[in-house]
Amino acid sequence: MMPDMPEELQQEIKAMTAPRVTVVTREGKPTTIDDYDSFMQFLMLASIASKAAKIQKYFDDRKSQGWIQNFDNVIASPALPSQEFTLDSPAQSISITNNALVGGPVIWVEINRRFNSRRTLGPGQTLNINFETHELERFFVQCPPGVPPTFSATVKR
């Protein structure tokens, strides 16, 4: 118990009955926790272990898988308002270039969802986005009506 805790509260906590919990160790040996202090220690350690697992998952997700997927010289149909490109698996980053010559058409790019922060790319411009973790699942490319632009995109996993 905490030394600065009022005596009455300490007595009430000691009087509480902790749930009886059986934990199986790595060696396969069952251990019973039946006093309040041990139960609270178990809960705290379980909480810390859970958070450590989430942190480990985050750091593992930051590691690149070391391969890319290319969308070279893709021509969006001028009949479609926008074209969706779905990735084989979630990626960390994307680089999209409008391959039009100076004076050519612009393209509009949206990442992961339609109507989500549309970005305009003029001829020769490149958009680079790095999510750090594997968050990129799809992207959309739109062009002015009747003008099919060419563009290239590379995603990194």
Summary tags:
Jelly Rolls; alpha+beta; 2 domains; 4-stranded antiparallel β-sheet; elongated; 157 residues; 23% helix; 2 helices
Describe the 3D structure.
- The protein has two domains: 7-62, no CATH class; 68-156, Jelly Rolls, CATH 2.60.120.
- It has 157 residues and is an alpha+beta fold.
- The longest helix has 27 residues, at 36-62.
- The radius of gyration is 28 Å and the shape is elongated.
- The protein contains two helices and ten strands; from the N terminus they run H-E-E-H-E-E-E-E-E-E-E-E.
- The strands form three sheets. The protein has a four-stranded antiparallel β-sheet with strand order 3-10-5-8, with no helix packed on it. Strands 4-9-6-7 form a four-stranded antiparallel β-sheet, with no helix packed on it. Strands 1-2 form a two-stranded antiparallel ribbon.
